[in-house]
Design goal:
mainly beta; OB fold (Dihydrolipoamide Acetyltransferase, E2P); 2 domains; 141 residues
Length: 141
């Protein structure tokens, strides 16, 4: 079933659990089989933990540092996260600083802004996609 390396009185021993139930276990140690009867052990009560407090999500605006606002370019994920919404579609005109999508990263909602003026030439993600840092989100020409 499972093999364990244990130390008994400073001596390493290999023990193999052959059978295990709520009432007993059969363990083989160095070729000898042992049946162990299990009894309930009273445990101390766990300390009470106060309930978790509700944390409101905050929204951050992120403009990736890419090309100057007068040129088009790729917009990549500033952090690993999940895409929540895509605000634009291929062919839409965008201005530098305009919100193009929303992603959740590190339990925060982040608005991703266009880094340049131009027209959206491709969108590489959709709502629900999980992205890695630096992954292409969309391109502006």
């Amino acid at each position: 079933m499972r093999t364990y390396n244990i130390i008994v009185n400073g001596r390493p021993i290999t023990a193999e659990v052959k059978e295990f139930s709520q009432e007993s276990a059969r363990i083989e140690i160095e070729g000898n089989s042992y049946k162990i009867e299990l009894a309930s052990v009273e445990t101390k009560a766990r300390p009470k933990v106060p309930p978790a407090r509700k944390v409101e999500k905050s929204v951050a605006t992120v403009t990736p540092a890419m090309k100057p606002a007068t040129q088009g370019g790729a917009i990549t994920a500033p952090l690993p996260g999940a895409i929540l919404e895509v605000y634009v579609k291929v062919g839409d005109s965008v201005s530098a600083g305009q919100k193009v999508l929303k992603m959740e990263a590190m339990k925060m909602e982040n608005e991703i802004n266009a880094t340049a003026n131009g027209v959206v030439s491709s969108i590489a993600v959709k709502a629900g996609d999980v992205v890695n840092q630096g992954q292409l989100l969309l391109s502006v020409e």
